[in-house]
Design brief:
The protein is of the alpha/beta class. It has 2 domains: about 140 residues, HAD superfamily/HAD-like (Rossmann fold, 3-Layer(aba) Sandwich), CATH 3.40.50.1000; about 55 residues, no CATH class. The protein contains 9 helices and 7 strands; from the N terminus they run ββαααβαβααβαβαβα. The strands form 2 sheets. It has a 5-stranded parallel β-sheet. A two-stranded antiparallel sheet has the order 2-3. It is globular and about 55 Å long. The chain starts with a strand and ends with a helix.
Length: about 200
């Protein structure tokens, strides 16, 4: 029996925390000695509370676009992805909601730079272009992302957004990736926990 595992990309595989922290310091939104943990969500909440949602959108587009090369994979993510993409009884997919260009800011193709980042970080490094096309999907809307997850008949889906998980059919097993433990009912806090969870099933 083949297990089909779908995985979100931004904030699930890709860790932007340092990028958001440095932008917040540079723009004098955070103090230099402020904590780094959960910097993305703290920055978002602070700017929205100050009625500066457009500034948040601009910073997010900058971090996800022009400064994307500063992002790093979460610890253990590359090892997990490369290990499981080579298992005979596992089909692995990256399925992400990502606009083609930032909503505000410089027009950078986010789909293209994301695929380049995957190659740079040596994820799926032994797979050919044909395999990549069938296993990595960047969709322009959440609705298309959800449809793709269903169409690919994923048995599991891993995402940092509960909103996405809640919109999936009941037959798909949902795993909430929550490294900052915002949700007390969170399934996993790290890729090491994910590895243990799936090793128990194989």
């Amino acid at each position: 029996m083949v297990i089909r595992i779908g995985i979100d990309f931004d904030n699930t595989i890709v860790n932007y925390e340092n990028s958001f922290y440095h932008e917040a310091i540079k723009r004098k939104i955070f103090k230099k000695n402020s904590k780094k943990k959960n910097s993305k969500n703290r920055l978002k909440k602070k700017l929205i509370s100050l009625n500066k949602e457009d500034e948040w959108t601009k910073i997010q587009g900058f971090v996800y676009g022009k400064r994307f090369n500063r992002a790093e994979p979460y610890k253990g993510a590359v090892k997990f992805l490369n290990q499981y993409c080579n298992k005979k009884n596992v089909e692995l997919f990256i399925i992400s909601h990502k606009t083609l260009y930032p909503i505000i800011g410089e027009k950078i193709n986010l789909h293209k730079i994301s695929k380049e980042w995957i190659a740079k970080k040596k994820i799926f490094q032994n797979k050919n272009d044909n395999w990549i096309k069938k296993h990595i999907f960047f969709l322009k809307t959440k609705e298309k992302k959800i449809k793709k997850i269903i169409d690919l008949k994923c048995d599991y889906f891993i995402d940092d957004l509960i909103d996405i998980l809640n919109r999936l059919p009941r037959k798909i097993k949902k795993i909430h990736f929550d490294p900052f433990e915002k949700n007390i009912k969170s399934n996993v806090k790290s890729w090491q926990e994910l590895s243990i969870k799936f090793n128990d099933k194989n």
